[in-house]
Amino acid sequence: MRTALVTGAAGFIGFHLSRLLLAEGWRVVGVDNHNDYYDPALKAAREALLLADPNYRAIRGAVEEPGLLMGIFAEERPEAVVHLAAQAGVRYSIENPRAYVQANLLGTFELLEAARAHPPRHMLLASTSSVYGANTEMPYRETDRADSQMSFYAATKKSNEAMAHSYAHLFALPVTMFRFFTVYGPWGRPDMAPYLFTSAIFDGRPIKVFNHGGMRRDFTFVSDLVRAIRLLVDAVPGTERAGEFDSLSPVAPFRVVNIGNGAPVPLLDFIAAIESAAGRKAQRQMLPMQPGDVPATWADTTLLRALSGYAPQTAVDEGVAAYVAWFRDYYGVGA
Ligand SMILES: NC(=O)c1ccc[n+]([C@@H]2O[C@H](COP(=O)([O-])OP(=O)(O)OC[C@H]3O[C@@H](n4cnc5c(N)ncnc54)[C@H](O)[C@@H]3O)[C@@H](O)[C@H]2O)c1
């Protein structure tokens, strides 16, 4: 039986990925500290579904706790490690940057040390499209320079990429870094726009539309995203280049890969899709751009396709309908 260690397994993406791996017959060891950055009841509900599978093991703890990951690596010897535990969110990183140092910098350091002692076949770590920061050339390519982060969140993720590269080089550890583009879908995070919009629409509250609606996001449906992750687990970086577009390091088994739909959607179209699925109109409160944010994101998915033969493509109408159906069911509203 193949064993995967998934950090942040009670989180939005970790939950979906763990479910997919379990359905394929993997043993999954999930680590999560169930912190209260958003409602821990949602994390507990996701974990309860995972625990229904006897091949799931849940470990409650913080990744930055010295020795925790080391002990788990030693005991479980996971073949694949997917590191999703992090303090996420652009806006919260202005308010509480220390949380990002703890979870993202120290947590990733402990993970790398554990992998150095007990090397898995492949380590896959979450980074973000936010690392492209001030880049304006679209779509974003992995080989583009990405040196101008606009938020401390993005800065910690860019640091994670550099930290992981050095371990990949020094200890011959195969590492893939994902740059995710705005992920949405059932069981989604309550701090993100799809939840904020949908809950306001059902409550009859106005929604806040930043940059006066002039935002575009490469929205990625979560089922597509975890399918891409799953396929990349078996695309272990070696020395072979997938093409001139490959971000493979010249000195280490390390690459970064965008996971996005490859099609930016205007925020106003995303809102219209929620209105249509909810059968209600939103009251729009138009506001300026928020600090740390970028007006648009757009993934080039050439490398993802070359490595996995796949790229996300769920259309926003379809994905949003699935999200709103889950929202009604989980929160018992809008029937
Ligand atoms: N959702 C997106 O649109 C998106 C976009 C880009 C990057 N990402 C990255 O993907 C990863 C997963 O994101 P998500 O949307 O599932 O977020 P999430 O917050 O739902 O999941 C993260 C999980 O990690 C846990 N966690 C946080 N700090 C921890 C710590 N110190 N120790 C142990 N567990 C901890 C949380 O309790 C949570 O369950 C994160 O690394 C995030 O930065 C997400």
From TrEMBL:
This protein's species is: Paracoccus solventivorans
Task: State the InterPro entries in the record.
Answer: Epimerase_deHydtase, NAD(P)-bd_dom_sf
Query: What positions does the domain NAD-dependent epimerase/dehydratase occupy?
Result: 4-235
- Which SUPFAM superfamilies does this entry report, sorted A to Z? NAD(P)-binding Rossmann-fold domains
Alphabetic keyword roster: NAD
Task: Please name the Gene3D superfamilies in this protein's record.
Answer: NAD(P)-binding Rossmann-like Domain
**What's the protein name?**
UDP-glucuronate 4-epimerase
Question: What is any Pfam family matched here?
Answer: Epimerase
